[in-house]
Amino acid sequence: MMTIDFKRLDIQAGDRILDLGCGEGRHCINAYILHPEVDVVGVDLSAKDLSIAHERFQDFAEPENSDKSFSLFCANGLSLPFADKSFDKIICSEVLEHIPDYAGMLVEINRLLKDDGLLAISVPRRWPEKICWKLSEAYHLVKGGHIRIFKARELHKEIENYGLSRYAHHWAHALHSPYWWLKCLFWDKGDEQFLVKAYHRLLVWDLMQKPWITQTLERLLNPIMGKSVVMYFKRDASL
Fold first, then answer.
1. Parallel, antiparallel, or unpaired: how do β-strands 39-44 and 113-124 relate?
2. Domains, in order of start, for the chain
3. Global confidence as pTM
4. Which of 9, 14, 71, 177 could form a disulfide bond with 128, CB atoms 3.0-4.6 angstroms apart?
């Protein structure tokens, strides 16, 4: 399930790409698959998630292609083992809402991004997320869960303070908002609750088959109830 739109990130041959908080590898693996000449780096604090990402990557590895590479690192996003201005593109998708010192992570992103680099950031959209918090306290108190609700406009301004300007934005995963509302409503019953289980089957079907009806419905609903807000930034040469 992709949140970042790579077409808006304008990945070029020779780009070095960082997926910060890569989790189980959905964005970094796809970046490697879609582009023939890139160096992709995934970073996460969870060794378990990185192990899953490594296992998933094996189906797509191209060891014979010396023009591209893929690597994974277990590291703290507040202090990364990379040189200043060492990445052309940085992805940070559905990460900042988990981080106590998210501002410190923005400092680190700014340090690593090249002067002509592009940044893609996504966080949960405010009003669908507020419903989740109201329906279930456990949703945001669970270990590793969401510890804050962002106002996209305020986050946008914070990022612009680093000399970056937003050039595109959109919303994503509208069909996932009701799923999470149901999960929160029936939190104590878990994923086996009938409605939660049935809706999950619908989402898997949509992901695997990509039928026109659900794909069209999601595109229409994303501006209204998209679960995530996605923003794209570039260096502002005037600053």
1. unpaired
2. 9-135+144-173+227-235 (3.40.50.150)
3. 0.94
4. 177
